[in-house]
Amino acid sequence: MPALIPLTLQPHVSRSEDNTFLQNMFGERSLQTLVKIHEQLQFYEERKPVPVLDSAAALAHESLLLVHDTIAQKSYDPELPPLPDDIDDNEDSVKIIRLVKNKEPLGATIRRDDLTGAIVVARIMRGGAADRSGLIHVGDELKEVNGIPVDDKKPEEIIRLLAQSQGAITFKVIPSVKEEEPTKEPKVFMKALFDYDPKDDKAIPCMEAGLAFKRGSILQIMSQDDATWWQAKHEGEANPRAGLIPSKQFQERRFALRRPDATLPLQRTSSRRSSGFRRSFRLSRRDKKTNKSMYECKKSEIYDTADLPTYEEVTTYRRPSGAKHRLAVLVGPPGVGLNELKRKLLISDPQHFSVTVPHTSRAKRNQESDGVEYHFISKHLFETDIHNNKFIEYGEYKGNYYGTAIDSVRSVLSRNKVCLLDVQPHTIKLLRTAEFKPFVVLVKPPAIERLRETRMNAKIISGKDDKGSAKPFTEEDFQEMVTTAQTLEVQHGHLFEKIIVNDDLSTAFGELRGALKTVETETHWLPVSWTHS
Ligand SMILES: Nc1ncnc2c1ncn2[C@@H]1O[C@H](COP(=O)(O)OP(=O)(O)OP(=O)(O)O)[C@@H](O)[C@H]1O
């Protein structure tokens, strides 16, 4: 039934199409409902109704918020019809997108398609403005920005155009046929083993989209879709926007190319002494005369080319109560004070800390007991054990072998004690297993001026002669300590979870003890591979 046109309007309606239009409009049910609501409201307004419930105002407020929330949670993106398969190039169906952009970047990168020459969206940064809008997708072809055609523009020019625009930006795009699958927030965390600054990276497709980080940073990897550029953000960072970082594979390749010397054997930092693995033996020895340079390193010091430090996947770990402790590994240049720090730890809590008992093939002396100063074994057995890789480190001095057996470490750990072990840096990688979960600390010397001040009365056990006599530090010792520490940090920095400067001894000791306490009791990051053995 045609609706009636109000009388007041009738004289103005002369054309038949106007008449049809008005009839249709007044015939619409929604309009009629609105008019009815309007009339009811007017009716009640005049009667000034009293609320039925005292809490009516609060209820109304709550309902309003509920309605707001319901609406806010709904997606009102326009549902575009899928593109037909037989899309004609000359008849591109375009999509007009209007985004309101504040100061943050758009969060998308573009490139010129080699084949078609078109400007296409190369990637969408997770959590960025473009991603959150859900309207722009990888592969979309960009035709216009704010009405300016971009076909003939270089990607850099377009980026500039985008960076300059504030507020609403209108894009005209030809949507890519394949739309990206929405993915769940990934839970992959990587510890960065190198420093990275996109400003120094010529290869990055968009410097502004890069994410800078330092060695030791924990990164949440948001996307590994691209083989060369991952998307990541700093762990715990509230901002959902991801940045570009080089992928593990790509960075490894770059490191391998950048460091042709990586395959060369390491230069010994000191020809004077083969420092390091004598140390873990010395603490448990009473015979102080025959220590030090008596051991010759037998393990290879070849730099492992597989050790290109990029990223290591990590996860959170908290030592279950009663579980074995992580192995506490100390590394540092000769004379820096590792022995002193271990001694202080042992004295501070002998029930809690312990060291390994070394093995030797030399004959037991009268005052010695097997298993106290050393485990005394035959030369033949020592050689068999070497052959069977039973030693973490071993050496030979005056025809006798000395070494730290892996089982000695196990023995300390199985007594539920923290095992303090100091090793040569190249040994660390043998210990990096789920069983030992080594917590590796580098002890560094302070600046040389401070060494001169603090070590005035200290003595270094000289390795120049075989007697191992203790002598005051020389200027050369200090210099060597500083340069060795620098080399250690450059070559093995990625292996250290903690770096302590041994300036004031009690401060350094406090720091070391605090760090050990933290790994014993608190949640921290650990390589994923160590958590499922
Ligand atoms: N912070 C410090 N301040 C002053 N003296 C120190 C400090 N740390 C260590 N020393 C002293 O320096 C000397 C060398 O220390 P220590 O023997 O512990 O070194 P080390 O790292 O074990 O060296 P190496 O393995 O080459 O023997 C000792 O006399 C020690 O008391």
Could you say which overall geometry the principal axes of the C-alpha atoms support? elongated
Structural class: alpha+beta
Name the bound molecules.
adenosine-5'-triphosphate
The largest sheet is: 6 strands, antiparallel
**Main sheet: strand order:** 10-9-8-7-12-24
The total beta strand count reads: 24
Unreliable runs: 262-278, 282-305
The percent of residues in helical segments reads 25-40%
Task: Give the amount of beta strand, in percent.
Answer: 15-25%
Radius of gyration: 36 Å
End-to-end Cα distance, whole Å, is 80 Å
Mean pLDDT: 83
> Tally the helices: what do you get?
14
Protein name: MAGUK p55 scaffold protein 7a
InterPro entries: GK/Ca_channel_bsu, Guanylate_kin-like_dom, Guanylate_kinase_CS, L27_C, L27_dom, MAGUK, P-loop_NTPase, PDZ
Domain L27: 1-49
Domain Guanylate kinase-like: 325-517
Describe this structure in words.
Residues 96-177 form the PDZ domain. It comes from Gasterosteus aculeatus aculeatus (three-spined stickleback). It is found in: Cell junction, Adherens junction; Membrane. Residues 1-49 form the L27 domain. Residues 325-517 form the Guanylate kinase-like domain. β17 and β18 (400-405) form a beta hairpin. The strands form 6 sheets. Strands 10-9-8-7-12-24 form a 6-stranded antiparallel beta sheet. It has a 5-stranded mixed beta sheet with strand order 11-17-18-15-16. Residues 262-278 and 282-305 have low confidence and may be disordered. Helices cover 29% and strands 21% of the residues. The chain has 533 residues and is an alpha+beta fold. It is built from 14 helices and 24 strands. It is elongated. Bound molecules: adenosine-5'-triphosphate (ATP). Adenosine-5'-triphosphate (ATP) binds next to α8, β21 and α14.
